[in-house]
Design a protein that fits this description.
This protein is mainly alpha-helical. Helix content is 76%, strand content 0%.
Length: 480
């Protein structure tokens, strides 16, 4: 298991090296007052400590993505490890850090508002629609996935519909109440359970000397599905996820100091990548090749989670591990609906201090999500994957524009943004849920489309820089 252990080590080193570099490029100003301190409202803007914020951020971003995604990504073989490691260090953690910190610098603004400010007013409307669609899909996926896991553990008279209803009831309560009442108190405990379950699986792999495959670039998918672009959408939350861009602003409104950002945003993405590595390795080790494919086709990723947990940790330990996995999507689902409520409220400028205003926005979202639970999970996951990575691509361009306008090294964000632009364009051109074109034609069309996006970014950046120069030159004259 040299590849597995080395990958974990690289992720940890990446946090202390590249994470520090990204922090330096951004330019933390610890004397600046954060939105939590300047705009406290007792509902969404509530100052909380770094450890508390970090565990809440981890649970917010780590839904079933870093578990289900890597399990399905394991079908491609050990090449999946490369995307988890380097995707997390150079794309995912950069994405999370920049969206969180730029939000802090802009009164806790969510991604649509940031896109409107840095990419243009049209993008604000586009990203607003994308974000709400993504959060609806996330909330729905994160209802059906834990409900299926719970259904496998309870007596037969407890129906799947009853479990879904109870999860939605919890979501309504958690979405309505101030962030420090349920999320701020319960999530740190859930975070401990999540880490214990992941460490239990990872420790068992090491102690038992599980035969984890070593690195190879060979595509081992039993159905021969293409690595590019499919792997980069299949494994999202464990490497790079646009969903995180909707979650980081939640914690940007509770962060007390800018220097805490690297631990909260960059660090928790690296932690999520470690969790993804553990589950990908476990799936490759215990159900490699066609056996894993058959199990996923029969019972979905949830079946793999249950079997891995029980086989490696026994009855009691396995049950605790499954409970940890159940906690993940539920705690991400409620904050998905919370984010959707906040984004819509910001867009229409609806104050959220009064609970009736929160209900006005949240209840229609829940009704739409209930309807979406009737759609096949696999189809939902495909739409979620594309909307998720498209949102990540936009968020990376926002981060690149912010850095570029400041005269800082925008390449840390613009390079992964360009890569993900090519990925998402290729996927939607080829996928059956998109245009259904052949893969060669999809590559041919996606490449120039990506080039156009890069040129538009460069043109917009040059315009913004020139405007800043003009404004800076005009200030002394105005003052005089």
């Amino acid at each position: 298991m040299i590849t597995f252990l080395l990958a974990i080590a690289i992720l940890i080193v990446g946090y202390f090296t590249y994470g520090k570099f990204v922090e330096k490029v951004f330019g933390v100003k610890n004397e600046r007052m954060t939105p939590a301190m300047s705009q406290g409202d007792g509902v969404d803007y509530v100052p909380m400590g770094t450890k508390r914020n970090s565990l809440i951020q981890l649970l917010n971003i780590a839904g079933v993505g870093p578990i289900f995604g890597p399990i399905m990504g394991a079908l491609y073989g050990p090449v999946a490890f490369l995307w988890i490691v380097f995707g997390a260090i150079f794309a995912g953690a950069v994405h999370d850090y920049l969206t969180g910190m730029i939000s802090i610098r802009n009164r806790g603004a969510h991604l649509p508002e940031l896109a409107g400010k840095f990419l243009g007013k049209v993008m604000k409307h586009v990203v607003n629609g994308f974000s709400v669609l993504l959060l609806l899909l996330v909330g729905t996926v994160f209802v059906t996935a834990p409900a299926a896991l719970i259904h496998n553990m309870v007596p037969g008279w407890v129906t799947l519909g009853m479990i879904i209803g109870l999860i939605f009831l919890y979501y309504i309560v958690a979405t309505m109440l101030p962030i420090d009442k349920i999320i701020g108190r319960v999530y740190p405990v859930f975070g401990g359970l999540l880490l214990i379950s992941a460490l239990g699986i990872g420790g068992s792999l090491v102690i038992t000397g599980a035969p984890i495959p070593e690195i190879t670039l060979t595509n081992m998918h039993p159905e021969g599905l293409m690595i590019f672009p499919l792997l980069f959408l299949t494994i999202s939350c464990g490497a790079l996820s646009g969903f995180h861009a909707t979650q980081s602003p939640i914690i940007s409104r509770t962060t007390q100091r800018e220097k805490d950002g690297r631990k909260i945003f960059y660090g928790m993405m690296i932690t999520e990548a470690v969790i993804a590595m553990i589950w990908a390795a476990a799936a490759m080790s215990l159900f490699y090749g066609t056996d894993l494919s058959a199990l996923i086709n029969e019972g979905g990723p949830a079946a793999v989670v249950s079997d891995v947990s029980l086989m490696m940790l026994g009855g009691i330990g396995g049950t605790l591990a499954v409970l940890g996995v159940i906690v993940l999507p539920i705690t991400s689902g409620d904050t998905a609906f919370r984010s959707a409520r906040m984004i819509i409220a910001d867009y229409f400028k609806i104050k959220q201090i009064k609970i009736k205003n929160r209900l006005l926005i949240a209840l229609p979202l829940f009704f739409m999500s209930v309807a979406l639970t009737q759609i096949d999970f696999t189809l939902l996951w495909r739409y979620f994957s594309w909307a998720n990575q498209s949102t990540a691509m936009i968020a990376l361009w926002v981060g690149a524009m912010y850095l570029g306008i400041q005269g800082k090294n925008h390449w840390i964000s613009s390079v992964p943004a360009a890569f993900m632009t090519m990925v998402t364009f290729t996927y939607i051109l080829n996928a059956q849920i998109g245009f259904g074109l052949s893969m060669p034609l999809s590559y041919t069309l996606a490449a120039p489309a990506t080039a156009v996006v890069i040129l538009l970014f460069a043109k917009k950046l040059n315009k913004e820089r020139s405007l800043n120069v003009i404004e800076a030159d005009a200030r002394p004259e105005k003052a005089a």
